């Protein structure tokens, strides 16, 4: 009996038991769909994070307080960076062309009878350039605002809309922590960054923030939450990172562990990529368990099928079918179930990835590698778990089979 005839007989047998065949494929369908969806969403999360960090600019550095180990040992954020550190970096590091210290806190912002909770960022005029935050209307903070500790504020696009609606906020006043601030500008919309709305922010002079909003809680000077730095170009970012690290070590008189960390955009992206990559692998592995369960289901159903078709097997062997013919037919049946389940699961998985891409900000996409891997694995599972029932059917003695029927 040739392969084509065996395949035709296998298809005919499966058609005769449509419901059982469909239920047998269900585990493979769920497994394939889960693997493709999880891998697609995971890769989408990686692309989304990559785009978010690339929007910061390729030559941006961030100095954050505390070392990696010190932040793991305590829940409280270290208070080791100061405004004076930022000023020293700006004046003494030759590969740096812009420094923007930030001191931030969450506060209630009020305008008339409207109020909302927003992130308040105390910073300097360089922030707009270093972090690529252009102004849509009015102006950003000035050196005079910082020197005098003026109560000037530039609003993010969403915050301006929440407080003023369609009215022009320029020249109007808002209240932050019961202090009156004059609106001098409205920023262009930037969207979310890793889940945080960058447009729901108010920017005020860092000196005003330190003296009138948060208070100066650092024993070393005017505390800052972190410092953003722009290097001269992408090629000099390594040199800038080295020079900033050495300068801060000298300023902080460090002899052992650093009390700060200097991160580049590439470093941050690598960390996020490692995390999302690990999560993608974990989710795909969990989803892949469904493929194993589906394979076991195929083996169970094929074993039942062998018992139900004892007479058929005995009759075929009695009229000349060899053990290999019986083995091949049952293997083909198992493989067909696995491959059809893989194809159906792939289509459902593609739909799931497309839905995730449409309903979430993740750049979810279908991975050809994941599709080939899932379908290949499902076909292999069909072959692997079809071996035992196929061998059992092939070894049936025709005389015993016909008598037991």
TrEMBL record:
Which subcellular locations apply to this protein? Cell membrane
**Domain ABC3 transporter permease C-terminal per the UniProt entry, residue ranges:** 285-398
Any GO CC annotation of this UniProt entry: plasma membrane
Q: Does the keyword Membrane apply?
A: yes
Keyword Coiled coil among UniProt keywords:
no
InterPro entries in alphabetical order? ABC3_permease_C, MacB_PCD, Macrolide_Exporter_MacB
Annotated transmembrane regions:
21-42, 281-306, 326-350, 370-388
Query: What membrane topology term does the record carry?
Result: Multi-pass membrane protein
Q: What is its main location?
A: membrane
Keywords tagged on the record: Cell membrane, Membrane, Transmembrane, Transmembrane helix
Family under the similarity heading: Belongs to the ABC-4 integral membrane protein family.
Protein name in the entry: FtsX-like permease family protein
Q: Which organism is it from?
A: Thermoleptolyngbya sichuanensis A183
């Amino acid at each position: 009996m040739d392969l084509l005839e065996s395949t035709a007989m296998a298809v005919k047998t499966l058609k005769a038991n449509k419901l059982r065949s469909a239920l047998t494929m269900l585990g493979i369908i769920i497994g394939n769909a889960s693997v493709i969806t999880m891998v697609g969403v995971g890769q989408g999360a990686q692309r989304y994070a990559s785009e978010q960090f690339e929007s910061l600019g390729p030559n941006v550095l961030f100095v954050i307080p505390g070392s990696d180990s010190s932040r793991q040992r305590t829940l409280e954020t270290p208070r080791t960076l100061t405004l004076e550190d930022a000023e020293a970096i700006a004046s003494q590091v030759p590969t740096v062309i812009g420094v923007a210290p930030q001191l931030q806190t969450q506060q209630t912002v009020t305008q008339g009878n409207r109020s909302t909770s927003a992130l308040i960022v105390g910073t300097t005029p360089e922030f707009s350039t270093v972090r690529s935050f252009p102004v849509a209307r009015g102006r950003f903070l000035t050196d005079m605002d910082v020197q005098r500790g003026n109560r000037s504020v530039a609003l993010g696009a969403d915050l301006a809309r929440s407080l003023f609606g369609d009215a022009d906020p320029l020249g109007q006043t808002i209240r932050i922590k019961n202090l009156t601030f004059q609106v001098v500008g409205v920023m262009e919309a930037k969207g979310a960054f890793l889940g945080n709305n960058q447009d729901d922010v108010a920017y005020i002079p860092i000196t005003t923030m330190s003296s009138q909003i948060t208070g100066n809680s650092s024993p070393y000077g005017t505390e800052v939450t972190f410092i953003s730095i722009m290097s001269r170009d992408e090629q000099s970012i390594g040199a800038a990172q080295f020079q900033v690290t050495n300068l801060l070590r000298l300023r902080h008189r460090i002899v052992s562990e650093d009390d700060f960390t200097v991160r580049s955009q590439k470093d941050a992206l690598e960390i996020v990529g490692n995390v999302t990559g690990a999560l993608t692998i974990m989710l795909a592995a969990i989803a892949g368990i469904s493929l194993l369960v589906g394979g076991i289901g195929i083996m169970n159903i094929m074993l039942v099928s062998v018992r139900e078709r004892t007479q058929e097997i005995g009759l075929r062997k009695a009229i000349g079918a060899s053990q290999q013919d019986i083995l091949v037919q049952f293997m083909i049946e198992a493989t067909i179930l696995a491959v059809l389940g893989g194809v159906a699961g792939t289509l459902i998985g593609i739909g799931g990835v497309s839905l995730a891409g449409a309903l979430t900000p993740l750049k979810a996409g279908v991975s050809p590698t994941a599709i080939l891997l899932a379908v290949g694995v499902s076909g292999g599972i069909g072959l692997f778990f079809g071996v035992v029932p196929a061998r059992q059917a092939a070894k049936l003695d025709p005389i015993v089979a016909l008598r037991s029927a």
